[in-house]
C-alpha cells in the first residue's frame, strides 16, 4: 500500500510539471486578436521627472482602432473639435510599434495587459525634459 501511495504521489508531481501550452504569442499579455477593434482611453497614470499623477479621461474623447490588417487610427474629440490620425502598427511579443502617417519615427510602447475588454500600455523613456512614464488604460468601446 505504501508503494501505491508513493507512485500515486509521484504521478501527481509529474502532472504538475506538464501544463497546457500557452496559446498566446504576445509575451503573456493576451492574444493578438484581442487587440483588434476600438478602444477608448479612460485613465493615464503618469510620472514626469519625479512628479506623479492620474488623469481620468471621458470615454470617447480618445479612441484607438486596430484593424486586423495592421492599420488603424487615433481619433481625439474635445467638445466640437475632433481630428483623426491614421497609423500602421506591428505587434511583436508584448511590444507595440505604431507609426503615424505624419511622423518620421515609430512609437514603441509596451503592453502590460491585454484581454478582450481591457488594454494597458506603457510608454517610458527620456526626452529633453527628463524622465517620463505614461501608463495608459483603455477599455473596449
Structure keywords:
141 residues; mainly beta; Lipocalin; eight-stranded antiparallel barrel
Number of extended strands: 9
Q: What's the order of the H and E elements? A: HEEEEEEEEE
CATH top level class name: Mainly Beta
What Rg do the Cα atoms give? 21 Å
What does this structure look like?
- With 141 residues, the chain is mainly beta.
- It has a single domain, classed as Lipocalin, CATH 2.40.128.280.
- Helix content is 11%, strand content 55%.
- The chain has one helix and nine strands, in the order αβββββββββ.
- Strands 1-3-4-5-6-7-8-9 form an eight-stranded antiparallel β-barrel.
- A hairpin with a 2-residue loop joins strand 4 (71-78) and strand 5 (81-92).
- Mean pLDDT is 84; it is low at 1-26.
Care to give the gist of this entry?
The chain is mainly β.
Q: Secondary-structure map with pairings?
A:
Blueprint: H1 2-17, E1 37-48, E2 51-56, E3 62-66, E4 71-78, E5 81-92, E6 95-100, E7 107-114, E8 118-127, E9 130-140
Antiparallel strand pairs: 1-2, 1-3, 1-9, 3-4, 4-5, 5-6, 6-7, 7-8, 8-9
Amino acid at each position: 500500500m505504501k508503494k501505491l501511495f508513493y507512485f500515486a504521489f509521484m504521478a501527481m508531481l509529474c502532472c504538475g510539471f506538464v501544463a497546457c501550452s500557452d496559446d498566446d504569442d504576445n509575451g503573456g499579455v493576451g492574444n493578438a486578436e484581442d487587440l483588434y477593434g476600438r478602444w477608448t482611453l479612460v485613465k493615464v497614470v503618469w510620472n514626469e521627472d519625479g512628479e506623479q499623477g492620474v488623469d481620468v479621461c471621458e470615454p470617447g474623447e480618445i479612441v484607438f482602432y486596430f484593424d486586423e490588417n495592421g492599420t488603424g487610427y487615433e481619433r481625439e474629440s474635445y467638445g466640437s473639435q475632433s481630428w483623426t490620425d491614421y497609423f500602421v502598427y506591428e505587434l511583436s511579443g508584448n511590444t507595440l510599434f505604431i507609426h503615424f502617417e505624419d511622423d518620421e519615427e515609430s512609437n514603441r510602447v509596451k503592453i502590460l495587459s491585454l484581454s478582450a475588454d481591457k488594454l494597458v500600455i506603457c510608454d517610458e523613456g527620456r526626452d529633453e525634459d527628463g524622465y517620463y512614464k505614461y501608463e495608459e488604460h483603455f477599455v473596449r468601446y
